[in-house]
Amino acid sequence: MTHSLVQNSRNSSSHSTFFILLGIPGLENYQFWVALPFCVMYILAVTGNVTILHIIRIDHTLHGPMYLFLAMLATTDLVLSSSTQPKMLAILWFHDHKIEYHACLIQVFFIHAFSSVESGVLMAMALDRYVAICFPLRHSSILTTSVVVKLGTAVMVRGLLWVSPFCFMISRMPFCPNKVIPQSYCEHMAVLKLVCADTKINRGYGLFVAFSVASFDLIVISVSYVMILRAVLRLPSGEARLKAFGTCASHIGVSLTLYIPALFTFLTHRFGHHVPHVVHIMFANVYLLVPPMLNPIIYGVRTKQIRDRVIQGCCRKGP
């Protein structure tokens, strides 16, 4: 099956209007079963994030900065996971390997733009926690609704402006006869490898975007949590310190599930020639699916106000 797809792709014109996504090369005989946990995680991600958005929308007491940032995160997670998972499941279950040229570029745009947005929202949420814990009496005056909207807009505009040149530059380049992408979705570097032209500018710009976004956001997140931990250590109650440490640890853990697989995938495309391809592809899927699944639990259900609303909703539906 894979061999025939590759051969057909090579025989097509260099101006072909489609690409071939192989799915998870090396696991062809197990792709049906590999897709099952991916499907479960996607359902959990959609259910969790839609629930968070619904609760925040209907409860006017949850329109403070933390919940507005949480709504932005939930929206970003829905876009990020839905931009890849339905097509990936179609590949693994129904062998629907073809993806139209413009659909592939749209996927590139959504994956990278909303990964940047997700990183920015996590940074904004870390700043919100820093202000709430270190300056509790001034929190409402510092993080007003206007400031929250401006932060969210800045994060969104950064993602759109930084990533748009990816698609523009790729769309103007000639592709080789081989249109096979050996993974389950269209990613910038994977598509760039099919170009029959000098791609130094594209690669350099990709490095700039990845490291400028990740380094800036990680520095802000790290400094925020260091300041939060310093404030937590001054708390007189041991129980309060443990609770705060647990919250910080879970938030940092979720952030790392985005940054570590994303950077691993990004660097492997460029330098990891000896990394097994199956490992690379699995990590590439993890960073687009695991954070959207975990975020509603860590940032949502563990928040008392949202947890109470979820419990109330379940009780109303009960016998």
Automatic annotation (TrEMBL):
Q: Tell me where it resides.
A: Cell membrane; Membrane
GO molecular function terms listed in the Swiss-Prot or TrEMBL record: G protein-coupled receptor activity; olfactory receptor activity
List, alphabetically, the CDD domains matched: 7tmA_OR52R_52L-like
Q: Where are the transmembrane segments?
A: 32-55, 67-85, 105-127, 147-171, 207-232, 244-267, 279-301
Keyword list (alphabetical) reads: Cell membrane, G-protein coupled receptor, Membrane, Olfaction, Receptor, Sensory transduction, Transducer, Transmembrane, Transmembrane helix
Return the PROSITE patterns for the record: G_PROTEIN_RECEP_F1_1 (PS00237), G_PROTEIN_RECEP_F1_2 (PS50262)
Carries keyword Ribosomal protein?
A: no
Which superkingdom does the taxonomy of this entry point to?
Eukaryota
Any one cellular-component term (Gene Ontology):
plasma membrane
The reply to whether Mitochondrion figures as a keyword in the UniProt entry is no
Q: How does it sit in the membrane?
A: Multi-pass membrane protein
Q: Where is the G-protein coupled receptors family 1 profile domain?
A: 48-299
Primary location recorded for the protein, binned into one broad class: membrane
Entry's family note: Belongs to the G-protein coupled receptor 1 family.
Q: What does this protein do?
A: Odorant receptor.
- Protein name from the UniProt record: Olfactory receptor
